[in-house]
Amino acid sequence: MASLVAITEHGQTIEIATVGSEGFIGVPIVHAVGITPYRVIVQMPTEAARIEPHHLIDQFNRGGKLRELLSHYAHVLEIQMIQSLVCHLFHNVSQRLCRYLLVTANSALMMSSGTTYLFQTSPPRVIMNGDERIHQTH
Question: Is residue 136 classed as helix, strand or coil in its secondary structure?
């Protein structure tokens, strides 16, 4: 899991999104901008593949499934950043901590077991190897 962290001119930081095994680092590359408005901090050990930006852009510009997947993920990341902003503005510290723990646990579980927990639904759902079930709480 990696955190995308915004940094102010005074050195203050705030986490604006997280990226797990479902995503990729480098959305600004596919948006064809040369500036990344955040830093990336790796939060837990993981394996990752690295591709040179020009190779990624070449493949992205060909269209097809890669372009579709990367574009959809960029949209999801944008939504996550907006949710993070709303959370920081309108929720108290306890609520923000709960959200952070749920996002972190979700990412850790995805990386270790192939299981995705969707905590922000009601009732919570669990997806295991593509099979979706309602999570029963007692």
Answer: coil
DSSP letter, residue 117 = E
Q: What pairs with residue 14 in β-bridges?
A: 6
Q: Which secondary structure element, helix H or strand E, spans residue 28, and what is its range?
A: helix 27-30
- Helices and strands counted in the chain (H then E): 4, 6
- Determine whether 27 is exposed, middle or buried from the number of CB atoms within 10 Å of its CB (0-12, 13-18, 19+): buried
The tokens describing 38, both together, are 């955040």
- Sorted by where each begins, the domain ranges of the chain are 2-90, 98-138
133: pLDDT strictly greater than 70: no
Return the number of other C-beta atoms located less than 10 Å from residue 26's C-beta: 17
Q: Could you read off the pLDDT of 18-38 as tens digits, one per residue?
A: 888 888 888 988 888 878 888
Residue 37's closest CA among 79, 7, 14, 76?
7
